[in-house]
Task: structure prediction
Amino acid sequence: MNNKLLTRDVGQLPAIKRSPMSFYSLVTIYIMLILAPWALSYIEGLQIRGWYEELVTLLSISGMAMMLCQFTLLNGRVDAINSRIGVDNSMRVHNKAGEYLAILFFLHPFLIGLPRFIVAPSFALDNLWIMFTSAESATGVYAWSLLIVLVLMAIKKNKIGLSYEAWRYTHSVGFVAVIILATHHAVTVGRHGRYNLWFDVLWIALCAVAVSVVAYVYFIRPRSVSKRPFTVVDCHKGSADDWYLTIKKDADFQFEFDAGQFVWINTSGSAFKRNEHPFSIASSPRSLPELSFVIRNLGDYTKQLGKLQTGQRVWVDGPHGVFTLNARNAQGIVLLAGGAGIGPIIGILRDLKNRADTRPIRLIYGNRNMAQMMFLDELIDMAKNMNLVTTLVLNDTPDDFPPIGFQGHKGFINQSVIEASGEGYNTQNWDYYICGPQPMVKAVETTLQQLDIPQSRILYEQLGF
Ligand SMILES: Cc1cc2nc3c(=O)[nH]c(=O)nc-3n(C[C@H](O)[C@H](O)[C@H](O)COP(=O)(O)OP(=O)(O)OC[C@H]3O[C@@H](n4cnc5c(N)ncnc54)[C@H](O)[C@@H]3O)c2cc1C
Result:
């Protein structure tokens, strides 16, 4: 990275608001939370004799705690939590934890049966069969089987042909069933539960909290969303593959957001239908009461957005997310957008323009071809009043690439493009905002890490959970 002395004026920094928790702090808190019930049982002197039994107990109790965290800490829909940890961080840990949870639950009966297998291998299968078919284990076996099916569905969700909405519904309802069955198993068969009332009470209370969170998302939240109607102002093609949707507040209610945040939009005709999709706001807060969005034509829902009628009622749940300029002290900003990722990025740029921000801002904007590029005239216009340089990155480059007013690069966003963006500046205290499809965000984040950009300087929003 070029770390020459800062050579140009740095404008006023945006107001400091709330600072989101870092990914590593989240992981630390998460690990402490999932170990807490076992630690509590240990401190209370409920430990079981023998290291192997203790290990199995630790894994079982931590597995239960992990599942409860999936509903609460890592739910992605609880504002009070997400505004502190960021929905992207939360979903990243949720997805990874889900995989470990599946392994842990899958191994659970086998780990319990292992000592008997070692002592009397010839009876091992019989023992396992008795364990699986005993009436006492029934709820545990149901929870075990259902969890494995649900986790496999989550991992393969893009390949099994189920619509995203159907998958999400199955995921929520299915896991409510799993947590209730698993809690019953823990308090009836689980060693601590069987002998200690307070452990039963703990699991039942935590299970109730988990189920309440789902009930809140499905039944209570839509009620407040229904009181915040918007109407469609316009929906037109913004590029060969993207819609540009504008909606407007249609009642007198408070709605504020920070540039870069996203909302869940429901165009189904009822605020109570769970047919909602997350989209990032592409307009700046100054455009309120209107909100605009860049929406890529991707699947069954986004392909039919052109059917939206002017004046049609829609509902907005939000704003959410911490992909904003808040609580940052950057002296320069690199914005890295892939495809529809330009949505929140143009929102941030518009906000910076409205604030007359004079810091160096570098936009690196990737697409497959020129027909997918949006806002080119606006970007040229912005560069007249802002310290903004835009580099277009394309896989298929036409002969006249890059267009006048832009820098250009053929291929993908790579180290050299990012390094070139900071030329002439000390980029040590710059922030890097990445937004685009998941593989693009991951690849660019890795490139930034290879360039020794501290994780605390990287903010990202993935267009998918
Ligand atoms: C925080 C966030 C912000 C986003 N911002 C934008 C944006 O500004 N512009 C944009 O074009 N796209 C954005 N997306 C992605 C957008 O939500 C999906 O592309 C869209 O919902 C696809 O719906 P579909 O039915 O047309 O496509 P499908 O082919 O059904 O889905 C494609 C993929 O989109 C995701 N997806 C689909 N439906 C939903 C849903 N209801 N909820 C969550 N994810 C879903 C899934 O990962 C799915 O695999 C964002 C996603 C997230 C998580």
Q: What stands out?
A: Residues 1-18 have pLDDT under 50 and may be disordered. The first helix runs from residue 23 to 43. The pocket of flavin-adenine dinucleotide is lined by residues 158, 164-165, 262, 277-280, 293-296, 298-302, 340, 343, 461, 463-465 (CB under 6 Å). The domain at 332-462 is CATH 3.40.50.80 (Rossmann fold).
